[in-house]
Amino acid sequence: MLRLDRIHPLVSGNKWFKLKYNLEAAAGKPVVTFGGSWSNHILATAAACNMEGIPCTGIIRGERPAVLSHTLQQAAALGMELVFVSREAYRHKDAGAFPDACVIPEGGHNAAGARGCSEILSLADTKGFSHIICAVGTGTTLAGLINATAGKSSAQRPGLPAAEIDPPAQKVIGISALKGAYSLEEDTAQLLTQPGRPEIFHDFHEGGYGKISDELIACMNDFYRQTGIPTDRVYTGKMVLAVSKLLERSYFPPGSRLLLVHSGGLQGNDSLPPGVLCF
């Protein structure tokens, strides 16, 4: 498992990479971005802007609750201005409404975000892995990983001895955390540097975005007991559960070596009652 969750306590996991070039593009302008009450992206943007001294605003989906979520409390404490809009208004949000700001899409889903995520695999020697697997929310991280592995071929170039045959191409797989989000293939493909259709599994969402099941919680606890690695209820826990089920189905060929990308977001577990998780 590639532990992106250990990069920074608040700009967690893949968010560090999604924000890298987006904040560079801000060039001193205030930042506006979007998300829900438990958005890892909102908190990460607030923390990154706080570190860089950049004013930022979060457009939050839904009416303002009587008590802010733990995520939004942290974001506000870091200096992010929170603006709550109805779900209807949120669905029709217009980036052009903020002409004087650097607008970062929800989840950092743009070319700059994918460019940053293409650098994730540079953190470790990943050449020996046959499959690279990540959770999917917007498709940005998946696109970056595919772009990073694009062009690798198992074909032998003419005249090369066997020792110099290119290694087999790495297969990048996404596990959707959303129910019925079949547009993710197209959303991801829009950020690819080479034409292609990403492979995304859609049947491991455990009821939908942010939904949990007894099986998911058991899997997260078992995985922690075996590895000492905490996962989150929204993304990485579902990724681990999906991989375990795919292994049971013999989806991966014999001899496969799997690299799971831990995209962070552990703060999402704060919404669970105490004692549900063993970590």
Sheet of most strands: 5 strands, parallel
Our measurement of the CA-to-CA distance between the termini, rounded to an integer number of angstroms, reads 18 Å
Structure summary, number of beta strands: 9
| Contiguous helical run count | 9
Order of helices and strands: EHEHEHEHEHEHEHEHHE
Tell me the overall shape. Answer: globular
Main structural class: alpha/beta
Fraction of residues in H or I helices: 25-40%
What would your notes on this structure say?
With 279 residues, the protein is of the alpha/beta class. The protein contains nine helices and nine strands. It has a five-stranded parallel sheet with strand order 1-9-6-7-8, with helices on both faces. Strand 7, helix 7 and strand 8 form a beta-alpha-beta unit. Helix 1 crosses helix 2, helix 1 packs across helix 5 and helix 5 packs across helix 6. The protein starts with a strand and ends in a 17-residue tail after the last strand. About 5% of the residues have low confidence.
In a nutshell, what does this entry contain?
Helices cover 32% and strands 15% of the residues. With 279 residues, it is α/β, with parallel strands linked by helices.
Notable characteristics:
279 residues, alpha/beta, five-stranded parallel beta sheet, four-stranded parallel beta sheet, 9 strands
What secondary-structure arrangement, pairings included, does this model have?
Elements: E1 2-3, H1 14-26, E2 31-35, H2 40-52, E3 56-61, H3 70-77, E4 81-85, H4 87-91, E5 102-104, H5 111-117, E6 131-136, H6 140-149, E7 171-176, H7 184-189, E8 199-201, H8 214-227, H9 236-248, E9 258-262
Parallel strand pairs: 1-9, 2-3, 2-5, 3-4, 6-7, 6-9, 7-8
Helix pairs in contact: 1-2, 1-5, 2-3, 5-6, 8-9
